[in-house]
Amino acid sequence: MKLFFFGTSSGKPTRSRNVAGAALSFANRSGWYLIDCGEGTQQQILRSPYSLHDLRAVFITHVHGDHCFGLPGLLGSAALGNRRAPLSIIAPRSLRELIEVSLRCTHLNLSFRWEFQDVEGRELVFKDHGVEVTRHVLSHRVPSYAYRFVEQGMKKRLDVSELVRRLVPRGPLWGRLQEGEDVRLENGETVRSGEVTLEKWPRRRVVMAGDNDSPGLLREACAEADLLVHEATFTEALRRSLPSDFGHCSAAEVARFAEAINLPNLVLTHFSARFRESGGARFPLSQLFEDARRYYGGNLLLARDLTGYRLGCDGILRQEMESSP
Ligand SMILES: [Zn+2]
User: Fold this and answer.
1) 130 exposed, middle or buried (CB, 10 Å; 0-12, 13-18, 19+)?
2) Residue 201's pLDDT band (boundaries 50, 70, 90)?
3) Which terminal CB of the chain, N or C, has fewer other CB atoms within 10 Å?
4) What is the value of pTM for the model shown?
5) Which domains does the chain have, with CATH numbers?
6) Ligand 1 centre from 16 Cα, in Å?
7) Using alpha carbons only, how large is the chain's radius of gyration in Å?
8) 36, 54, 66, 291: which one is catalytic?
């Protein structure tokens, strides 16, 4: 499983960070998924290993502009690139209108079909050969959602000792069982594929959360999750100095939640534009990390723009040196 960030800034871009956008892709699957599409996401995609031709679906967490203003431009560029494959867009209902008005007012004819799925409808919002995606309600100034991606279509390997124990004769039956078929033996016994096969690698579960002031809402979505990507707009000190939390979280709040549920990997993103990387900054990004580290003992990462991460066989997410989709 790979994760890549196009933008990590909250509200508005900075000179070094764009607004929200991230890519997810899974091992041995073609294509990738885009989560949020702030303005300028398409320029960031050009600087990344990802291509609009291979984009399978777009998931928007909520209607605020730093998460969706990039959609019309992205669709236009995909059309200019002569994309043909249909594109699924999963988003709050009103964004359908944003897309339709943008296409109409700018006389933009797309070269491909786009299929809009209202996130407020059913919980299972998307399914293809690679993933199943459910949406989970968050708390923000407008309706906001997290998307839980669960890897599907895992390659199977045979559990040979179980096949031998069940007296399944070596040969074509083994192949059929590996393909997922249940078979009947000569003695009349039925052997189910799931009883004699194992997944080749662990099924990955990733939760990509939108803006949210109540991480506890993600308890169910994060059950068995390998990884949570969550906003950390403020440090505790900055949050206390502001008149409102604007429906956002501090790094410490997310960290306390992640620790309480024993989450193995936590990636923080969506940092207030006040935060800067440079050492002398009044609001250094490192302060967000230190705040979270105080409460969370698992694998903690601060997302960086144009940076890829890979979930290793050991279940640990690490930054990639060279990013490929
Ligand atoms: Zn935002």
Assistant:
1) buried
2) confident
3) C
4) 0.90
5) 2-154+201-319 (3.60.15.10), 156-198 (no CATH)
6) 17
7) 22
8) 66
